[in-house]
Amino acid sequence: MSFRLKAITRDEHLAFVAARPSASHMQVPSWGDVKPDWRAESLGWFDDNDRLVGVGLVLFRPLPKLKRYLAYLPEGPLIDWSAPDLERWLEPMLSHLKAQGAFSVKMGPPVVARRWDAEAVKTAIADPRTRRLRDAEATAHEPGAFDIADRLHRMGWQQTEPGGEDGFAAGQPRYVFQVPFAGKTLAEVRQDFNQQWRRNIKKAEKAGVKVVQGGYEDLPAFHEIYVETAQRDQFVPRPLTYFQRMWTALTAEDPDRMRLYLAHHEGEVLAAATMLTVGEHVWYSYGASTSRKREVQPNNAIQWRMMSDAHELGASVYDLRGITDTLDESNHLLGLLRFKVGTGGQALEYLGEWDFPLNKLLHKALGLYMSRR
What's a single GO MF annotation on this record (predicted)? Predict the structure, then answer.
């Protein structure tokens, strides 16, 4: 028998998430408020005893001039992915979303497939024969993940290929870098940093870099250097209003859901970053830095402060988010990967995002449109 699935309240959704050690920040009710171009709905799976056993935040994006929608569950849903009968979970979801007018469903199972420790990543970068991280020998494999992928294929789900040259997926990153905190003191976390990272933290302290926690009123200062970062690193920046809406929505749900940090030196903001928290999972979300005074190492200083605060909050993992899969020296994102590897953490490959075309014609048309953007 399938689980019973229905729309649930925000409070029911939030209570379920709060009872779990970890859930994506894109699977909390307030994330729907961050995305005003999408209509959000909280879904709940109920067992035969009418107990809530799974939830999902689904975002509906309308097709122009049609009452048909792309339904998207970023880094979700929050269900038992190890269950041998995944159909019992996913089939009622597809039926519900089809009845809501969805022509295609996209989801990102929060399932890790492979892990590479810092040494394995450094070895892969140094080997000119290894062009992509996915081709390097993994430190650990999660055999259950490949079984899940096989079952999804058999059910008709289609795996989205990893993104273009930089390895980022079209939606959420398939490859991320995380620093495990569970069972470690803060001193042990720092001891795992490479020599350069430890030296840079000391250099920032000696130079007088001060990292402070900011508020809503400091978002314009963050955004100013974020735009500078976007120009330097070749990406399109989000407007200030996005971060103001994000702050208002997330902190209304939980005062600690989003934090802002700023690294000051001699009265000038040199770096800033946002941090998100759900349960024991903490993310470095958006970062920004100016090209001035880089020698005082504000980026290492701000990350160390955020890690210290995350550890104090009881985090079991500090997530540095997306990394490039491409290890070519010409890739401008390789420097960011080297920076993250210096923390001594590990690279993870998730199962990636999966599509289920409920209307194959409209799904194909969307695919053509996205490929030409």
Answer: aminoacyltransferase activity
Length of the chain as a residue count: 373
On the 0-12 / 13-18 / 19+ scale of CB atoms within 10 A, 53 is middle
Helices (H), the chain: 10-18, 31-34, 86-99, 118-126, 143-155, 186-191, 195-207, 219-233, 240-253, 298-312, 334-341, 360-371
If you average pLDDT over residues 165-182, what whole number do you get? 77
Residues 277-297 have pLDDT tens digits of 999 999 999 999 998 998 999
pLDDT mean across residues, the chain: 93
The CA-to-CA distance between both ends of the chain, in Å, stands at: 42
* Statement: residue 145 has pLDDT above 80: yes
DSSP 78-111: BS-TT-S-HHHHHHHHHHHHHHTTEEEEEE----
Yes or no: say if 105 and 155 are a contact pair by the CB < 8 Å rule: no
Instruction: Measure the CA angle with vertex 49, ends 48 and 52; round to 5°.
Output: 95
Contact partners, residue 22, CB within 8 Å, separation at least 6: 278, 279, 280, 281, 316, 317
Kindly report the number of other CB atoms within 10 A of residue 52's CB atom.
15
Q: What is the pLDDT of residues 234-274, one digit of tens each?
A: 889 999 999 999 999 999 999 999 999 999 999 999 999 99
Domains of the chain, CATH where assigned = 4-108+353-371 (3.40.630.30), 112-141+166-350 (3.40.630.30)
CA distance 222 to 227: 9
Mean pLDDT of 107-131: 96
Residue 162: band (very low, low, confident or very high) from pLDDT cuts 50, 70, 90: low
